[in-house]
Amino acid sequence: MPTTTTLSPLRADGVSLSYGDRRVLTDVSLTVGPGTRLGLIGENGVGKSTLLRVLAGVETPDSGVVSRPQRLGFLWQEVRFAPEETLGALIEDALAEVRAIERELEEAAAALADDATVSTGASTRYDDALAAAERAEVWSIDARRDELLAGLGVGAIPFDRRVGEVSGGQRSRFALAALLLARPDALLLDEPTNHLDDQAAAFLERQLLGWSGPVVFASHDRAFLDAVASGLLDLDPARSGTTVFGGGYSDYLAAKAAERARWEKQFADEQDELRALQHAVDVTARSIAWSGKVRDNDKFVKSVKGNALDRQISRRIKNASGRREELERTQVRKPPAVLSFAGIPSGFQPLGDETGLLVQARDVRVPGRLAVDAFSVEPQSRLLVTGANGAGKSTLLAAVAGRLEPAAGSIQRRRGLRVGLLEQDVRFPDPAASPRRIYAETLGERRAEAVPLTSLGLIAPRDLDRPVGALSVGQQRRLALALILARPPHLFLLDEPTNHLSLNLATELEEALGAYPGAVVVASHDRWLRSRWSGEEVALRAA
């Protein structure tokens, strides 16, 4: 692995970016040195993925500059590779720069051999090529490829399989392995653990803890943040636009709460002072006046004392006005309301008989994806479905919801059962439609009025009329969650519910599920969630 002395830091200075009239990033500055692992955190839509794209050079900021190491690797949330391409092609595409380094080393060596005088130019070129080859570890490509694929749990999948023939989690693992294999000087990772089980997440942690170059990653994974981050950049609105916290997620929670309390107190104190100053300006001149009946021989005294009093009043008003104007210019802005999940709305209607089963599945088979002998759900069930990627967690939920017909076996559902499924990958047919419109059309006017979208605490008022296609992946998933909860189903199925959700919402949702009036089935790899689960667990094995 290359030494840190050969690597450059990743820097951003004063980066700002807007989409139309919406400011996403405001004056963001950061320096990530070799060996530093910076985690990006914040509510959905605050610009974590946008900042990663700017750092990667995929997007150009409106202002500010970015300097980056020569070779930089970027992991997108979703694999950007055609479904008909093979997994082997995905690997080779990621190795394009490494192959170029190999060719340059060969050509530089040939040029040096042909240079009878061993000129400085030929020697320098060879030294540079050799250093680049060492950083990219070109001589161990095949061995490292096998190690990475095995460590991420996809080593047994043939390279000739097409991208569209494997699960979303397997695609993501191949893309991650390809990125790590390319050994870039710096890493940018957008939700790298979204599709990783415990073993794969632990393997990735070890890779990143030993990474020599700068690492910047956005993650909702609280356990991963605690294990990997050497610092956190909070992109939630704050006085300076961003706030840097040292340490992992547990350290952040305490520091964030203290920072918010200080901000709220300063704002309240300044508002109190502004009101007092305004009172002084408005009232002082009227309440302080020379009083008393003036006799003829007192007119001179009245004139002298009155003029002095007028000057005193004028001075007080001027001082108060000056302080008020200064404070109005420098006051901290009001802390924005924290988008907080309001919990499960009313309107749940039981099926009637609270005994018996809601769903019973027997001998369910989906070739290559799922093999379950028995699975049942009671009216108040709290089930956690676990298993390695490819074990069929998503397939089981889709089959229970009636969105996938198994090749064999039977799934019986109680008459009148209403099932809601929060899928991993949310897709809305019309990207131009707004959340407000989608919500009203899905629920109907009466229910949408009875349970307003904003009342759920999942979509900020400023985003109600934006095109859904312009929202972040996390914001779209919040909308999908709102569409289900606005009419609570008897059986609530959640596929990796914390994926793409902010840290705060993930915690609030977990707490709300405990009080859900119906049955809840969760499929998750989230170690933080699973370590705190108090219900039953169902472990699946690969078909």
Choose one word for the global shape. Answer: flat
Low-confidence runs (pLDDT<50, min 5 residues)?
1-5, 289-294
Based on secondary structure, the structural category is alpha/beta
- Rg is 31 Å
- How many domain modules? 4
In short:
The chain has helices at 48-56, 87-94, 96-114, 120-136, 141-151, 168-182, 198-209, 222-228, 249-287, 299-330, 393-400, 435-443, 445-450, 473-485, 503-513, 527-531, and strands at 10-19, 22-32, 37-41, 63-67, 72-75, 186-190, 215-218, 231-234, 243-246, 359-366, 370-377, 382-386, 408-413, 419-422, 491-495, 519-523, 536-539.
What's the topology here?
Layout: E1 10-19, E2 22-32, E3 37-41, H1 48-56, E4 63-67, E5 72-75, H2 87-94, H3 96-114, H4 120-136, H5 141-151, H6 168-182, E6 186-190, H7 198-209, E7 215-218, H8 222-228, E8 231-234, E9 243-246, H9 249-287, H10 299-330, E10 359-366, E11 370-377, E12 382-386, H11 393-400, E13 408-413, E14 419-422, H12 435-443, H13 445-450, H14 473-485, E15 491-495, H15 503-513, E16 519-523, H16 527-531, E17 536-539
Parallel strand pairs: 3-7, 3-8, 5-6, 6-7, 12-16, 12-17, 14-15, 15-16
Antiparallel strand pairs: 1-2, 1-4, 8-9, 10-11, 10-13
Helix pairs in contact: 2-6, 3-4, 5-6, 9-10
